Amino acid sequence: MGKIALCPGSFDPVTRGHLDIIKRASKVFSEVIVCVFNHSSKSPLFTVEERVELLKEVTKDLPNVKVDAYQGLLIDYAKAVGAQAVIRGLRAVSDFEYEMQIASINRKLDEEIETFFMMANNQYSFLSSSIVKEVAKYEAIVSDLVPEVVEEALRKKYAIPRD
Q: Residue numbers for the site described as Transition state stabilizer (predicted)?
């Protein structure tokens, strides 16, 4: 303990899979900073501010979890907040190649900051924010995929009436 870990991502939107990784990381590290990054290659549904607010709401019962946003290199942010570790969730083998590239460049930029890969819980191994948005857009039930506050935010974004 006594270590600060970053849990970076776009979180557009935060899913139960993300939340599972965050909760598990909070049991291992003394502080977990969930940081919303804007990926230039993605067109987000939610603004950075909306994603931060949703994350704050779903992590409010985790006293050692903080939520922030940053635009720039993850390693620069990690240095600025004194983080020693980066937590990355892996759903399947297909995630590993991409995540290994990111971990390798981060290690090259600062060898003092370690990357820890955490396997997704089997019940969330298929889950991604992209899938959630696609399913929600067509008014399918997403309550088992995202926290209630996120489900409500998706309803509003897609102008889906309540049952």
A: 18
